[in-house]
Design a protein that fits this description.
The chain is α/β, with parallel strands linked by helices. Helix content is 34%, strand content 15%. It has helices at residues 15-21, 48-52, 66-79, 92-103, 118-127, 172-181, 194-197, 234-243, 250-260, 263-282, 301-307, 324-332, 380-397; strands spanning 85-89, 109-113, 134-138, 154-160, 185-189, 207-211, 225-229, 287-291, 314-319, 349-353, 370-374. The strands form 2 sheets. The protein has a 7-stranded mixed beta sheet, with helices on both faces. It has a 4-stranded antiparallel beta sheet with strand order 8-9-11-10, with helices on one face. The model is unreliable at 1-6 (pLDDT under 50). The protein binds pyridoxal-5'-phosphate. The site of pyridoxal-5'-phosphate has 12 residues, from helix 4.
Length: 398
C-alpha cells in the first residue's frame, strides 16, 4: 500500500522511506494520514447468513482491527520479503513466550543463548520445564560449533544478538544454517537492532521477536511486543496468539504506529550519539573496556560490520576495579541519565549490573564493575558533561 493509491506501481524503497509509508492507506480512512483507533470488541454482521459463513473482513476485536492490521503490515514490510505475517502482543516478553509456545511441544529440547534477556531464561527454566520442554544454554559466540549441542529432540534454537547487557554479536546466518540442517527452528530477539539495522529473516531466522516497548514505541510510554515470521510458521504463530487469547489494546497499537514513523531518524541519532559517547568513554582512564559492537575494539565488530547497517544507543562499559560504592556514587551524580531499566525511549538511562549469577554456559568475568547506558536524544556535549560529573564523584568515593 502507499500513501495515495494502491494502484500506483511501488518501486523498491529505502527502509527510511518504508517506515513512513508502510501500513498506511489514507483512501480507506477518508484521506486522513493516520488510521483511526478502533476501540472494538464485537462487530455486527449484515445478516444471519453472513454471520454463520463468517463473511466479514474482521471477526472480533481480539483477532484484529484496521488499527492492528496497519501496525502488523508496517512491521511485516520492514522485516522484508520473507515475512509472512506479524502477531502483536502486549509486551516484548509476551512476544518471547508466544513465539516459543508456537513452536515447542512436550518432549522437545531448546537451545538458548547464555546472554538472553533474564526473563527469557526464567520462562524457559520455570514455565517450559513444567510442560516437559528442556532448555540448555550455549555460548553466544559459539558460531558453527553449535552443531555439537544439538540433540535428536532439539526442536529450536533461540538467539539474542547482541545481548542487551553484554553485547556479544552472534553469527546468526551460520547458526541458522546449522539449525536448519538439523531440522530445528530459529528464533531471535532483534530488539536492539530493529528491522532497520538487521533483518533476521534474510539471514535464516524463522521467528523474530521485537520488544516494541523500546525503539518502535520510542517514548517510554507503551508496552508492546511483536513476532514476525515466515510462511512455514505463520499458522502456528497465529493459532497460538489466538488460543492464548492474546492481543494488544488499540491505543497502545496506535502509539506503536506513531513511534514507528520516526524510528529511522531517532535511530540514526541514537547510533551517532551512542558511538560518540562510547568513543569518549573508551579514552577515559577509569574505563577498562567499552562493550559496543560498532567499536573496532569489540570482539564481535567484524560480524556487526558484515550483518548490521547500524547500532542503536544501548551499550555497556567495564570500569577498572573500584568499590561498588564508587559505582553507585558515579551513577547517583548523573543528572541527565535516569537510573532505570528498559531502553529505546528518547531519554538517556544508566544501570549497574552483574551477570555472573545469570550465566550457566559461560563465565562472566569482565574484570571490573559493569554499567549499561542508553544514549538518548539529548545533546552529546551535555551527556559527556554529565558523565564527567559522574567520574568526579566516582574518584571522590573510590
Ligand atoms: C532484549 C529485550 N528483549 C525483550 C524485552 C522485554 O520487553 P518488554 O519489557 O516489552 O516485555 C526486553 C526488556 O527490557 C529486552 O531488553
Amino acid at each position: 500500500m502507499n500513501d495515495t493509491s494502491d494502484k500506483r506501481p511501488s518501486p523498491p524503497r529505502h527502509a527510511d522511506t518504508r517506515v513512513v509509508t508502510a501500513g498506511r492507506h489514507p483512501p480507506s480512512y477518508h484521506g486522513f494520514i493516520n488510521p483511526p483507533v478502533y476501540h472494538a470488541s464485537t462487530l455486527i454482521y449484515p445478516s444471519a447468513e453472513d454471520y454463520v459463513a463468517q463473511r466479514s473482513r474482521y471477526q472480533y476485536g481480539r483477532i484484529g482491527t484496521p488499527t492492528t492490521e496497519a501496525l502488523e503490515s508496517a512491521i511485516a514490510e520492514l522485516e522484508g520479503p520473507q515475512c509472512a505475517g506479524v502477531a502483536l502482543l502486549p509486551s516484548g516478553l509476551a512476544a518471547i513466550s508466544t513465539a516459543l509456545l508456537a513452536v515447542l511441544k512436550t518432549g522437545d529440547h531448546l537451545l538458548v543463548t547464555d546472554n538472553a534477556y533474564g526473563p527469557t531464561r526464567a520462562f524457559c527454566e520455570q514455565i517450559l520445564s513444567r510442560f516437559g520442554i528442556s532448555a540448555t544454554f550455549y555460548d553466544p559466540t559459539i558460531g558453527g560449533e553449535i552443531a555439537a549441542q544439538f540433540r535428536p529432540n532439539t526442536r529450536a534454537i533461540y538467539l539474542e544478538s547482541p545481548g542487551s547487557l553484554s553485547f556479544e554479536i552472534q553469527d546468526a546466518g551460520t547458526i541458522a544454517k546449522v539449525a536448519h540442517d538439523k531440522g530445528a527452528i530459529v528464533l531471535i530477539d532483534n530488539t536492539w537492532a530493529t528491522p532497520l539495522y538487521f533483518r533476521p529473516l534474510d539471514h535464516g531466522a524463522d521467528l523474530v521477536i521485537q520488544a516494541g516497548t523500546k525503539y518502535i514505541g520510542g517514548h517510554s510510554d507503551v508496552m508492546l511486543g511483536a513476532v514476525s515470521t515466515n510462511a512455514a510458521h505463520i499458522a502456528a504463530l497465529k493459532q497460538t496468539t489466538f488460543l492464548y487469547g492474546l492481543c494488544e489494546g488499540p491505543d497502545d497499537v496506535y502509539l506503536g504506529l506513531r513511534g514507528l514513523r520516526t524510528l529511522a531518524v531517532r535511530l540514526e541519532r541514537h547510533f551517532k550519539s551512542g558511538l560518540e559517547v562510547a568513543r569518549w568513554l573508551e579514552r577515559r582512564p577509569e574505563v577498562l573496556r567499552v562493550l559496543h559492537p560498532a567499536l573496532p575494539s569489540h570482539p564481535g565488530h567484524a560480524l556487526w560490520r558484515r550483518d548490521f547497517t547500524g547500532a542503536s544507543g544501548l551499550f555497556s562499559i567495564v570500569l577498572k576495579p573500584v568499590p561498588q560504592k564508587a559505582v553507585y556514587a558515579f551513577l547517583d551524580a548523573l543528572t541527565l541519565f535516569g537510573i532505570g531499566p528498559s531502553w529505546g525511549g528518547y531519554e538517556s538511562l544508566a544501570i549497574p549490573f552483574d551477570l555472573a549469577p545469570a550465566r550457566t554456559a559461560t563465565k562472566w568475568v569482565p574484570g571490573g564493575p559493569t554499567v549499561r547506558f542508553h544514549i538518548g536524544l539529548e545533546a552529546v556535549t551535555d551527556l559527556i558533561a554529565d558523565l564527567q560529573r559522574g567520574f568526579a564523584a566516582l574518584a571522590a568515593a573510590a
